[in-house]
């Protein structure tokens, strides 16, 4: 993030603040977050009003006065309003904060209008820039598609949901866990490219694409390889809710070693996704559908199976075609033998 917009102030001029107090709400290029004070003091002056857009990171947005610098003239040496105003008139050290973004207002099409211009949110601007860089510039993409049978997983999911009331797991929760399993089997796909070296990660931190009114966000299921499917399901529900409400913290979406983008619930059969750089891979997940497949013998020439198509987009600098195919085989193994996801 290099710039953004200021969403709202939580403190006013003259308010006393303690370390950890939320003084403003800012929207980064990925989410709206609370900006906390790092020291005690008093807000002396608001330099940037709510709604200010495209503020460069490091630009002062408020002037603060440290309590230790104010000589109180009130009863018992207490600091009163006049003391703050007197100190504020002196040169003050400006407190810098990241800027934030206002949510683009809904715009209705005026009667008879040929078009309407909708302002881009900061998230959409940054996402658009990164998509172009990732697809047309830095990352040489290639794609591998494989079908996986889902019947055994669907049965196990139904059993897991019936056996506990903690959380109702979704198919995507098992997909995330299967991705983590495959990354441990084929760690080359759990990597990032640099000109000097390839960095391979120990943990499978799975970014999950979430569509919001502000744009596409990718909250992270950290260490998915060590979590149960139920724990993954709880994380997904919590993070998706925060993403849609614009309340993700930077630590919840910055990073990730692999991304899952699932459009299966919309009925999309198959698609390809743009890699979420600097990650090496992203898995595009389509919908599950009934399909006739060859049977085991002449007596049963055909069987009806539930099949799902997945497409792996890979960075060819890191993941050669054979490695990508190996990863898909490991993913297929985990999905079609879902007991592996419970170990």
Please name the defining characteristics of this protein.
six-stranded mixed sheet, EC 2.3.1.-, 343 residues, Chloramphenicol Acetyltransferase, four-stranded antiparallel sheet, OB fold (Dihydrolipoamide Acetyltransferase, E2P), alpha+beta, transferase, acyltransferase activity
What does the model show?
The chain is α+β, with helices and mostly antiparallel strands and 343 residues long. It folds into 2 domains: 3-96, Beta Barrel (OB fold (Dihydrolipoamide Acetyltransferase, E2P)); 139-342, Chloramphenicol Acetyltransferase (2-Layer Sandwich), CATH 3.30.559.10. The chain is 25% helix and 28% strand. The protein contains 6 helices and 18 strands. The strands form 5 sheets. Strands 9-18-17-16-12-15 form a 6-stranded mixed beta sheet, with helices on one face. It has a 4-stranded antiparallel beta sheet with strand order 4-3-1-6, with no helix packed on it. The chain is elongated and about 95 Å long. The two termini are 39 Å apart.
């Amino acid at each position: 993030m290099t710039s953004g917009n200021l969403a709202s102030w939580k403190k006013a001029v003259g308010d006393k603040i303690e370390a950890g107090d939320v003084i403003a709400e800012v929207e980064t290029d990925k989410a709206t977050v609370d900006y906390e004070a790092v020291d005690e003091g008093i807000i002396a002056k608001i330099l940037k009003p709510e709604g200010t857009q495209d503020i460069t990171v490091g630009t002062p947005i408020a002037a603060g006065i440290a309590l230790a610098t104010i000589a109180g003239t009130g009863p018992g040496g207490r600091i009163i309003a006049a003391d703050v105003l007197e100190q504020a008139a002196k040169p003050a050290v400006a407190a810098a904060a990241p800027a934030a973004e206002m949510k683009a207002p809904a715009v209705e099409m005026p009667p008879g209008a040929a078009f309407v211009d909708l302002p881009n949110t900061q998230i959409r601007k940054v996402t658009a820039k990164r998509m172009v860089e990732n697809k047309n510039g830095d990352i040489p993409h290639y794609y591998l598609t494989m079908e996986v049978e889902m019947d055994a997983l669907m049965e196990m999911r139904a059993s897991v949901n019936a056996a506990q009331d903690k959380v109702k797991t979704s198919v995507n929760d098992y997909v995330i866990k299967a991705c983590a399993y495959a990354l441990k089997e084929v760690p080359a796909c759990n990597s990032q490219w640099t000109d000097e070296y390839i960095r391979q990660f120990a943990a499978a931190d799975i970014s999950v694409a979430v569509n919001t009114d502000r744009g596409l966000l990718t909250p992270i299921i950290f260490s998915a390889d060590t979590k149960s499917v139920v724990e993954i399901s709880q994380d997904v529900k919590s993070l998706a809710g925060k993403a849609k409400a614009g309340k993700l913290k930077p630590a919840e979406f910055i990073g990730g070693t692999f991304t899952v983008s699932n459009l299966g619930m919309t009925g999309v059969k198959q698609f390809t996704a743009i890699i979420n750089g600097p990650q090496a891979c992203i898995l595009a997940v389509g919908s599950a559908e009934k399909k006739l497949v060859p049977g085991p013998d002449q007596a049963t020439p055909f069987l009806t199976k539930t099949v799902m198509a997945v497409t792996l987009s890979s960075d060819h600098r890191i993941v050669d075609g054979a490695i990508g195919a190996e990863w898909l085989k490991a993913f297929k193994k985990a999905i079609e033998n879902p007991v592996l996801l419970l170990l």
